[in-house]
Each structure stands twice: as C-alpha cells, then as structure tokens.
Amino acid sequence: MGLLIQSNVSLKPFNTFGVDVKARVFVEAHSDADIREALAYAKEHKVELLVIGGGSNLLLTGDIDALVLRMATRGIRITHENCDGATVEAEAGEPWHPFVQETLAQGLAGLENLSLIPGTVGAAPMQNIGAYGVELKDVFDSLVAMDRETGETREFSLSECAFGYRDSVFKHQVGRWLILRVRFRLSFAARLHLDYGPVRQRLQEQGIANPTPIHVSRAISAIRSEKLPDPATLGNAGSFFKNPLVSAELAARIRETHPGLVAYPQADGQVKLAAGWLIEQAGWKGFREGDAGVHALQSLVLVNHGAATGLDILHLAQRIQTDILERFGVSLEMEPNLY
Ligand code: FAD
Ligand code: NAP
Fold first, then answer.
1. Cα(299)–Cα(290) distance, rounded to whole angstroms?
2. What is the pLDDT of residue 1?
C-alpha cells in the first residue's frame, strides 16, 4: 500500500497542547519503507521535514510549512537474553508507557520509574527522558537512526548519544537524525530507585514492604496522575522549563531571602533548583490569561485551557522567564521543542 499523503492537515490531535495549526503536508509512517518514501517526497517537492511522535514535547507557534511525518512504526522484540536480563528493541512509533508495561510484564526491570511519560519510544532519546531519579541513559543500549540527508542508517552507542540532563546529540543536530528503533538493557533482578520524591512513602502507605518493579510503576503512575494534568482534558507538554543548574553562591543568596528554597547540590558543585518552586514563589501558580495558563497544582506545567495559540503560550512563558530572572537572577530554559 502506498503512503497516504495529505495536505493542509490540522495538527490539533497530534500535539498534547492541543494547539490548532495546520501542516502543509502530513504522512504517517508504518515502516522504514514509508519513511524512505516520505523523505523522497520531501526532497522531490523541496519541502522541509518535521518528524513527530506523540507530540507531547512540542510547542507549535504557527502553521507548519513542512511535511510532518508522524512515526507510527510498531514492534517490540528481545534481541539478546541471558540469566541476568535482556536487550529489548522497540520501534520508534511504539507508545512509551505501553512499552514500559510490556517490559515489566515480561519480568524485566529498569523502566519502572519512567512510567506514564507520554510520547513514543523514538522521541525518548531526544531529551534523554527522565523522572524520579532515572534517565533513559541508565538503561540505554543503543539505537538505530537514519541520516535524513543520505538515507543511510547507523547505530549509536551510549557514548555517541552524548546524553545529558534532558539533552542528547540529537537535540543539537536538529533535523539530521531520524530515530528508527531503540534498544534497552533491562534486568531480571531489580535495583529499585525509591529515594526520589514521595515514591518510598507512597509504597509504605500502601503497606508494600518489598516492592517489585510493577509496584513501583503503579505507585509512580498514581502520583503522576494526581499531580499532572491529563493532556486529553487539559492541553500541556509536561514541564515547560528545565530545572536550572546554578552556582552554590547564587543558591545561597536566594536562600537568604527565601529560606524554603528547594535545591539539590550536584556532584560538580552546582546546585539544581526546582523551577516549579521558583515560579510558584513568584505568584504564577494557577495564573491564567485568556486560554494560556499555569497549572493550578504544578507551576512548572503551562496549560492550554482551550483555544490558546502556540504564541499565547510562548508569550506567557517569556513573561515568566523575565520575572524569574529579575526576582532570582535565574535563567529558565524552555524544555519543549519550538516550531
Ligand atoms: P514529540 O513531542 O512528538 O517530539 C519531540 C521532539 O523529538 C521533536 O523535536 C521531534 O521532532 C523529535 N522526534 C520525535 N520522534 C522522533 C524520531 N523518531 N526521530 C527523531 N526525532 C524525533 N518528559 C520527561 O523527560 N520526563 C517526564 O517525566 C515527562 N513527563 C511528561 C508529562 C506530561 C503530562 C507531558 C505532556 C509530557 C511529559 N514529558 C516528560 C515530555 C514528553 O512526554 C517526552 O519528552 C517524550 O519523550 C516526547 O515524546 P513524543 O513522541 O511525544 O515526542
Ligand atoms: P517533584 O517531586 O515535585 O520535585 C521537584 C523537582 O525537584 C523535580 O523536578 C526534581 O528534579 C527535583 N527533585 C526531587 N527530588 C529530588 C532528589 N531526591 N534529588 C534531586 N532532585 C530532586 O517533581 P514533579 O514535578 O512531581 O516531577 C516528578 C518527576 O517527574 C521529576 O523527576 C520530573 O523531572 C519528572 N517529570 C518531568 C516532566 C517533563 O515534562 N519533563 C513532567 C512531569 C514530571 P528533576 O526534574 O531533575 O528530576
């Protein structure tokens, strides 16, 4: 079956902010052959290519004058197994959370703390997704990506991905690599990470003394559901700003006027501040202007109450950045990818 190429398609269902912009051309890729066909189309028609997965880390600020290629490839397989664990490979279009559930159901540990993150497997390496003390890089084996210019595929090892805090080589070489499939190294014996946020407490409250990875996944999913808005009912892209790393001196200065400062010292001497806490202290929690707003339960999350445009959300984000810089001397960097 040939590729279904559509023009002037609304991207509202394809971004979790629910921003209503149009793509000049839109295709869904279900196989590597579809991807090659889409690349050839883009080249032939001299149109830019924008690859998307679940659209949960995007802020679309206007109509997209490009071919939007939505990854819908599927497949999960074990490529290597021994008595300690297994290497599991998943196609880029696999939805992330069901993939995590599938690995846990197979008795494999490692992804439990990354439960309930929206999006796809293929986008996960883009910003080295992280939550509750675990990052993708901690269980990453390798990935296969296609060079959009040449159409050639190549493997990336852990070191070649240059993963950092919400960062990777792919984020820096924008538009070059199309991630096709990702491999994870998971283990049968769980080494659980429970010391982040309220995870351990939640398990204790449930009377679970010896948690399994599935217990951890359920606890984290419950905590997340209570705190984070569901994009199906309130548009958002998760945390809108990264948690800033500042010098110990700056953190100490802020603490003089704000003794409750939420700060985590890092191994390199810097201090990670909770951006959500800074935004809340500045009085933005629950703020709303038109349909763009700050979530009432988590100030790090900007929301679309209905008809906000990408620019409405961007302008609100910029106002918050300016305010936080003036009040605390801290620069907040946006996390979602802007188009
Ligand atoms: P998209 O938004 O579709 O794309 C993101 C970027 O990746 C774009 O630049 C796109 O061009 C590129 N891209 C997508 N697929 C590919 C591919 N196959 N090859 C090359 N480039 C590609 N993130 C966290 O790290 N931790 C969290 O805990 C977390 N929680 C969230 C909670 C909520 C409620 C929401 C809405 C978001 C959250 N996020 C979190 C952000 C987001 O879910 C992740 O970054 C996710 O990995 C994005 O996946 P996606 O498929 O939706 O990517
Ligand atoms: P939280 O528990 O209220 O904590 C606030 C911030 O403090 C977090 O962002 C986290 O930073 C940091 N933190 C908490 N405990 C820490 C510890 N023991 N050591 C070092 N840093 C610590 O955060 P939350 O908003 O509910 O989110 C919970 C987790 O899910 C976090 O890891 C967060 O990153 C992740 N999350 C990410 C997104 C996204 O879109 N990126 C959206 C929702 C949730 P880190 O963010 O660096 O972990």
1. 17
2. 59
- CA neighbor of 335 nearest in space, from 268, 264, 275: 275
In a domain, 18, yes or no: yes
Do residue 218 and residue 286 come from a single domain? no
Pocket of ligand 1 (CB under 6 A): 16, 50-58, 71, 92, 117-120, 122-124, 126-127, 129-131, 177-179, 228, 231, 236-238, 337
Which of residues 53, 71, 89 is at a domain's end?
71
From the list 194, 199, 152, 128, the residue with the least C-alpha distance to 36 is 152
Given a cut of 70, whether residue 270 has pLDDT beyond it is yes
Residue 102 known to be catalytic: no
In the chain, the amino acid numbered 68 is V
Two tokens, residue 83: 């008595």
Q: Do 247 and 181 reside in the same domain of the chain? A: no
Q: Tell me the C-alpha distance between 250 and 255, whole Å.
A: 9
- Residue 264: pLDDT above 80? yes
Predicted TM-score (pTM) of this structure: 0.97
The label of the residue with tokens 């300690």 reads 84
275 lies in which domain range?
229-338
The total of structural domains in the chain comes to: 3
Residues 66 and 81 in one domain: no
Domain edge (last residue) among 71, 92, 122? 71
Separation between Cα atoms, residue 5 and residue 101, nearest integer Å: 33
CA of 98 to the centre of ligand 1 (A): 15
